[in-house]
Amino acid sequence: DQNTYTVIEGENVQVSVLAVQDADGLGGYTTGPLTWSVKDQAVISFDEAWSQTGMPTVFGLKPGKTTLTAKAAYGGASATCTIVVEKAQLQYVSGDTNTDGAVDMRDALTLLKHLAGWGVKIDMEAANVNGDSGVDMRDALTLLKYLAGWGVTLK
Fold first, then answer.
1. What is the spatial order of strands in the sheet that 44-46 belongs to?
2. pTM (predicted TM-score)
3. Are the C-beta atoms of 119 and 40 separated by less than 8 Å?
4. Which of 61, 119, 126, 148 is an S-S bond match for 92, by CB 3.0 to 4.6 Å?
C-alpha cells in the first residue's frame, strides 16, 4: 500500500503525500502551504522544515500505528497516510549479561546470581555464551573461562 509507511523506532523515513496537491482530481495542483496533523503524537514526530514540500521526514518515537494528514490551505484537498512504527531490534554483546556495554566479572556474577534464583534480570541472548538452546551453568563456566583468558570464544 503506497499510503502506508513503516519506520523503525528511533529511525526516520521520508513520506510523500502528493495526493494532496491534486485537489481537483484532474492533475491540477493546489497551491499554498500544507497543514499537518498527527493522530497519535506519541508514536511519531515529523520535520517541520520539510513539511511544506509534501515530503516530510517522519521520526519513529515508539512502536505503534498512527495517521499523518496533510491539508492544503487552498482548495481544501487533503491526504492521509498511515505510519507504522516497528520496535527496534536490540543488538547484544555475547557475555554482557548485565547490558552495561562491557564483558567483565560483573557479568559472570550477574549470571551466577540469576542461575542461583536470586531474581536478577539478565539479557538471555547475551548470557547464552556457548550458543546452545538455553542459559545454564555451562554458560557461566564458559564466561568465567573467557574472562580468565583461557582462549574461549563466546558465541
1. 12-14, 57-60, 44-46
2. 0.53
3. no
4. 126
